[in-house]
């Protein structure tokens, strides 16, 4: 899910559209007419891990891994809107995600005055595991398309690991959908309006169809997309078509300095009330961290990112995967973002900017359980109180002001 582009106001992105299972007779990845009287059952997206790297040659490389509540069927389709030239497509090793996730994930230490114990960590990311697809495909920015087929320009068709791929550009959304369906990339009707939007805003599409040559367990290899651009983005709007009630999204951004949500956009940095976190060994984080993230996101009007870690890449320890080592070695700084998003708030694509500043955020959070020593200005575990803000919060009011200003332009 990442978007790229060149020039003022231009964007670039990658997005998983909607995923539907199919019977043994393959009939497409997005929608299958073999679902019976009850219709197709959505393969719901349950989590996502994204990594960006700002490269010395002026390009951005995005690594994307998605997780579902059940395995993806052969024929599953994945559509990626991109701008800024013909992208370079490839596949990634899930070990790269796992190691960098573990090296940057939040840690919690509970203390009671002077003593303490640790709890969990690493549960905020998606935690998906997928098979390595191998292989690579190199698009050539500025090259001529191979064909012009009924309003669709085909820039490249190739194979990337376990995926059959195509890079296309259409005059209309209808032309794009017709070409995709004719080439066995089935699209649900609910995606039509969003595809129209990306065509109208000048995007090409990289289409992936899951087509493994050998027997598969339905796990999806992560992909990479390298493109010309200056502003990475995680377009989330189309994900609402098939998502769990709350989608976990982790973003790692590698660059020379701190990465931040675009100040001209509608997303802001938020901070959970860490002193309200309690232990809860029934959750992946072994704490109530997700509850506090949900509250902070709600205060931001549904458009907020927690900065879970920001530091020099020398702080990333325990890396053995070659690509993970390369990302840490070739970039001076890493910023980790996390959010939990409900489909009703997937209405604006979050964008990020690269900066040359440094603003470290320690991934270790120390939480004092002693009511005599814990801070009480925001409420603490020890006090038993939770100080709720206004329904929309101060951050939400600022967000509303930005929206009104944008409408007046």
What does this entry look like structurally?
By secondary structure, the protein is of the alpha+beta class. The protein has one domain (45-408). The chain has six helices and 19 strands. The strands form four sheets. A nine-stranded mixed sheet has the order 7-4-12-2-1-13-17-16-15. The chain has a five-stranded antiparallel sheet with strand order 3-11-10-9-8, with helices on one face. A three-stranded mixed sheet has the order 6-5-19, with no helix packed on it. A hairpin with a 4-residue loop joins strand 1 (45-54) and strand 2 (59-68). The longest helix has 16 residues, at 393-408. It is globular and about 70 Å long. Residues 1-43, 120-142 and 376-400 have low confidence and may be disordered.
